[in-house]
Every structure is written in structure tokens, then in C-alpha cells.
Amino acid sequence: xxxxxxxxxxxxxxxxxxxxxxxxxxxxxxxxxxxxxxxxxxxxxxxxxxxxxxxxxxxxxxxxxxxxxxxxxxxxxxxxxxxxxxxxxxxxxxxxxxxxxxxxxxxxxxxxxxxxxxxxxxxxxxxxxxxxxxxxxxxxxxxxxxxxxxxxxxxxxxxxxxxxxxxxxxxxxxxxxxxxxxxxxxxxxxxxxxxxxxx
Length: 199
Fold this sequence. Notes:
199 residues; mainly beta; four-stranded mixed beta sheet
């Protein structure tokens, strides 16, 4: 009994260690409270190439292939939206810093693309492997190939009450007459019906 119990204990410990190692292996990023006080200098990312000496949205990355972890300092856009998302391509990472989107190659530490600046919301649709980013006036979609559509302007300046049902995103858009007007948007094409008349 003693030896079998010991074997079981070792098997359990090995399984726990495997799970821990697996969880570490798949971790690609971690949001930090601020810039590290020591260690390698952070990589700087800015849509305007300005402000790189000030603290932005700070993220630590964990590349595969036993490469050293590194820290990125992402300058913020115009909103309070801060998110880190795995890109639909399965390898890159999307960092949303104050509404500005940065697409980063974790292995090379290189910026692949940046866009936006005023995103207020992001909606993930896993079954379609797509993200929809929204500002106060319109929406933009990104899939594994990159940005696939941008809607026409739906609102003068404000979108609320968003709800996703199947292939349709519904909500209310603010009109210049100071009223909220319902709209619906096809998440496959970006075409919409309703909303404020701004064109």
C-alpha cells in the first residue's frame, strides 16, 4: 500500500507539473500595472512616434521557442479602452491602448500594423474568428487576414445598447436631433440599416 500510494503521488505530481508547464507555455502576454523598475528597457510603440518617453499601456509578452520575455509600452489613443487580444491569425497579438490598435509580432517584437485611435468597444465573435471594433460613429472588422470591412457612419456621435444576435449587431445611434435611433449591422459585410442620417 505504501509503495502504490507513493507511485500515485508521483503520478499526480507529474500531472500537476505538466499542467503548470502547459499553462506557462500557452501564456502569450500579461498586462502590467506600470513600467518595470529594472531589467531590459521596454519596446516603445506609438501611432504618432511621439510620447515614447511617457508611460502608456504596459504589456509583458512571452514568445515561444524559449525566447526571453519582453515588455512593450503602448501609447494611448483617445479613449479609455485597454485590451490585449490574441489575433485571429493565431500568432500575432492585438493591443488596444486607449482605443488605438497595435498588431504585434511577439517573436520579433515588431509592429505589423496600427489603426484606430478612438475605439470604444470591441466585440469578439469566436465562431467567425473575427473581432469588431466600434467607435462612437462606426465599426470596423478584423479577421485572420486583416481588416475586412469598415461600416459607413451610423451615428453623429454616440452608440449604445449593443446586442449581438447571430449575424446581426443591433444598437442605438445618436442623432443630431438629440434622439437615439435603432440600427442593425450585418457582421459579415458591415452593411447597416437604420441609425442616424449623416451622409
